[in-house]
Amino acid sequence: MEFRIQNIQPGYTAGRGIERLPLKKVFSLYEQGETMTNTSLKTAALAAALALAGCGKGGQDAYRQTSAIMNVPAQVIVYGADEAAGKAIADAVLGEWNRISGEFSFSDPYSVTSLVNRKAYGEWVKVDAEFMGLLRLALDYYRLTDGAFDITFAPLWPIWKEAASTKKMPAKEDIGRALATMGSSHIQVDPARLMVRFSRPVQINLGGILRGYCFVRAAELLRQMAPPYPVELRLGSNMLAYGRRDWEYSVTDPFNDDKSFGSFTFGDGVLMSSSGREHFVQIEGKLYSHMLDLKTGYPLNDFSSLVVYFPKLESESFLASAVLAVMGKEKALAAIGRLKGSAAVWIDGSGKETVLVNEGSGAKWSKSRSLF
Known about the structure:
The protein is α+β, with helices and mostly antiparallel strands. The protein contains 10 helices and 20 strands. The chain has an 8-stranded antiparallel beta sheet. Strands 5-7-6 form a 3-stranded antiparallel beta sheet, with helices on one face. Strand 8 (about 230-235) and strand 9 (about 240) form a beta hairpin. Helix 1 runs antiparallel to helix 5 (about 130-145) and helix 2 packs antiparallel against helix 3 (about 85-105).
C-alpha cells in the first residue's frame, strides 16, 4: 500500500483532491525555504565543530542534555563523546525542536499556525514551504483515516476538558455542535503559490504530527552532522536511536506506570508511541482515553497503547503513531505490515497485546509480564 499526499488546487477542498504525491516528496518540501536553508548552514558549521571536538578524549561516558518541549520531557544522550562534541549535537537537536514547537504552536499568538487561523477564513494566506508540507501531510492523514484524524479538532477540546473537570459526560448535543464546525475538508491549499484559506471558520492544530516531525528533522540533522558516536533522542515517549548499539525501548505497563509491559531491542531506528491511558480521565466512574476519534467526537474505545518501530524515519513509509491509533487495530496493523522492516505492539483496553514483527525487521519483542 502506498500512502500519498493530496495536491489540492485552488478552489478544491481536501476531500476533492486531484493529484497525489508520495510522502517522501512532501518531506523534501521541508528542506526548502529560507528557514531550512539557514538551518542547513548552521548544521555545516556544527559538523565542522564536531570533527574538531571529536579529536579530544575518548571514553564511553555519555553527554546528556534535557529540556521540556511541547509540554513533554526532551532528552539528548550522546554516548562516548566529550562535552564539546556532545553539546554541539544536543544544542542543534534541541534548538531545532524548540523552533518547530514555537513556529507551529497552536497557543502562541505569534506562530505561523495562529496567523493562518486568524486570517485564512475567506482569504488566501501566504505560508512557507515547510508549513505547506506539514499541512498537506495532515490533510493526507485526514483522508487516510476517513476523518478520524482531523487537525480542526479545536471545538471539541474545551468540551472534554470541562467533562474531565466536572466528572460528567458532555451532552450529545454539544458534541454534535462541535463536530458540525469541524472538518479538514474546509481547508484549501494552493501548493504552487504556497497559499492557504478556509471555506469555513475552522482552526487548525498541528500538534498531532509535530513530535513525529521533530524526529524527521533530527534524523536529517544527524545525517548531515554524521557524528561518530551513538546518539539517543527522547521526546515524550518517543525515541530515536542513531548509530549501532544494543538499543532497548521499554513499553510501560498501561495499567501500572511503575512496571514494564515488555520491550523492543533493535540496532537503530525510531520508536513512536501513542498511549490512550497516559493522560486518561475518569468520568462518571469510567476511565476514558485522552485520544479522541474525531469522526465521532468521543474517546477511542478498547485502546491502551500502540508502539511502532521504524528502521528509518526519512522514508515515505513513516506514519505518525497517533494516526495509526485512530485507524483501529486491524487497519493500523495492516498498514504497518506493509512497511518494510517495521514492528509494532498494540495493547487493547483490557491489556491484551497483538505483536507484529515484519520480515527483515531488526527489532525483537520481549514480554515482561502477562495480564492473562
